[in-house]
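Moderator note: this is an archived Q&A kept for reference. The question asked for a predicted structure of one protein chain; the sequence and the answer are reproduced below.
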Amino acid sequence: MLNPVKVGILGLGTVGGGTVHVLQRNAEEIARRAGRGIVVTHACAKELNKTHPYSTDEMVLTTQLSEVVSNPEVDIVIELLGGTTIAREMMLQAIANGKHVVTANKALIAKHGNDIFAAAQEKGVMVAFEAAVAGGIPIIKAVREGLAGNKIEWIAGIINGTSNFILTEMRDKGSQFADVLAEAQRLGYAERDPAFDIEGVDAAHKLTILASLAFGIPLQFEKVYMEGITKISPEDVQYASELGYIIKHLGITKRTDNGIELRVHPTLVPNKRLLANVDGVMNAVLVQADALGQSLYYGAGAGALPTGSSIVADLVDVTRTLTTDPGNRVPHLAFQPNALVDLPILPIEEIESSYYLRLSAWDKLGVMAQVTNILSDNGISIEALIQKEPICGAAHVSVVMLTHKVVEKQVNKAIQTIEKLDGISGQVTRIRLEMLDG
């Protein structure tokens, strides 16, 4: 067997530690698959004296990043720094030094991947990023290689565990958003500043990557429509349930005749769909492809060992290709670099969807007739309607409607007109609805 491949790791936190743990625990199995051993010989970490379930005896430990990326002994660099400044600098330095890179950094790939892949292409090295989307689930490999014979039509995914945990708890316990968020922070599922998760930024990074792999388009994070879950109320969760739906925070990308949809937002999903039943911090990605039909990829979207599992899979891939001609490798974004097409990304008002609308109406004759007329004037037809009993003699009642498919700008126009009616109190709540039925 060939000499072991030497790996340098930037960051020995949760994921870095998990990666080393997997490499050491399954060393023999990994070598049998890769054709040679894979050993972490160099590591850069802020704290080097923590107790952990793996050995650092054979590693050169340093607090200087450049000592790893510029070390001539290191074949592959694993970047686990997070953020997009120092991480980008180190990754480009490693590439310039002719080293292959493995990363779990979705923000870096989503925002700077086009430049990074171009630099790697020029130097004939690989940048592998399986762990950047959905943690341990091998979704990138599935879309890039397993589905290479298909035309992918759409992808819908629960790709942020924190948001999924919060919505699951709201559904199961009838709790308010703020209470469940506090609980998620206490359990360590949400950061002290949870905005990245609950406002959809993290999911948008991952969706950017999935859309490029699915449709052969450049990465364009800045064009993703993002909407978080902070405005979802227990009432909406309850009414959705009465109508046979579950609210999930989805990343959705679709190929349409007019362009590509790229959107992250709360979504009503029929409760019989597999995706509707993915609970807690788990992730799942549903892919609709022309030859295969639907396939669902489910598993842990975060955590030391699940994410370490994806990083090690990338290390094995890179190790296998060390001896091959760079022209014969699987392209970074699934399509050959010169075959990417810059299709238009549709603004959110141009997408087509069904909608859940909740409004507070005066409990008197004629108000609902006005509302239905406005919807009709905007080409919106109603599929289902629930009118709640007034609570303790209140003057207003909650009315919930589901619409058939319609272009979003028509819904926006209707909502603006409805909100001006004397018989309507406050704002209309709007949540998009997807049948996900192929």
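Archived answer notes: The mean pLDDT is 94.
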